[in-house]
Amino acid sequence: MAGNRNKDTQKSPIKIRLKAMKNGYQSIYLDCYHDGRRSYEYLKLYLVPETDEAAARQNAAAMRKAEAALKGRLRELKKQPAVNKRLVPEDVPQADLTLSEWLVRFKDIQRSRGVKDLYAIDRLRDIIADMGGGEVKLKAVDKDFCLSFMEYLKTGYRTVSGQPLKSKTVFNRQCTLITALNVAVREGLIPSNPMNRLSRHERAKTSKGKREYLAIDEVKALIATPCQREDIKRSYLFACNCGLRLGDVRKLKWGDITKDGSRWLLSAVMNKSAKPVHIPLGVQARRWLPQGGKRQKREADGLVFGSLPSDTHINAHLKAWAEKAGITKAVTYHTSRHTFATMLLTLGADLYTVSKLLGHSQIKNTQIYAEIINRRKDEAVNLADKIFD
Q: Are 231 and 376 within one domain?
């Protein structure tokens, strides 16, 4: 019986996998291979080092939840109609996978992680096809190919209107390729990312740009101003108080928010870095959670902000809302993340703590916010100096 059970498990199109984390935990996720495509679903469940019986019980509970999720996904899979036409044939050996075929799979992986804005992957695939690199085998993508790609981005490619790409667009397409190749490394398809062999002079550069954020008085002005879409207003002000990116807000589930005594905690795996973050939710953050329906009706796997429109529509509503509130800054959804960081530093939080709350892998990524605060201090002192001129 045991042998048959193992055999059935091996044939399952969905399997439970574990990924080691730097903090000693293991992240539990589902590995799905269906219709010639592989995708992943991170369950936000973790195995902790079993140092005592409590940890062992916690791990057993996490595995039971993972097994329940596995059975649920298998049931959903059986209900789906078979896909007759595949962008990537199932019988293509991984060693023969072309770069273009890998980008199709990469797009599916990103979609399974909750990434909504997949336009950049399509544009990258078009550009690579335009330069004649779509049929290059993934394993043959080397430093020379990457150099040719960067040169084509900078000087060869032309838009429909005949214009070269803007430097910011070149930088963004470069970042998409880097991410796609990083995922290919994690999948074991290539040993290393050849883009990492390019020097900083060979890569595209972009200026740091101005990180727009809202002052506390401006946040108060938004609170006092009605927005045409209440769900957008709530999600934006929620993000101002927890620092989540829009993609992470979109996939946030009620099960990610827990209460231990009087302490509320948000635990999520960030789309961009695949890193887990644990963010305490204060009164102001909880204030903007959707209020419709009773708490017991909010299923753990239900989305908190499930009715949000596309990124473009969200930012259009934010612009109109900010103008109505008398704010002249260019407000996009990402402004909420910058607002969260600068607000914490202004109120005295240390840089290390803010870095952890934002999910930054390196503290230098958080340093830019400290520079913003320092500039504000300099400007304040200069205002005082002008009084005595």
A: yes
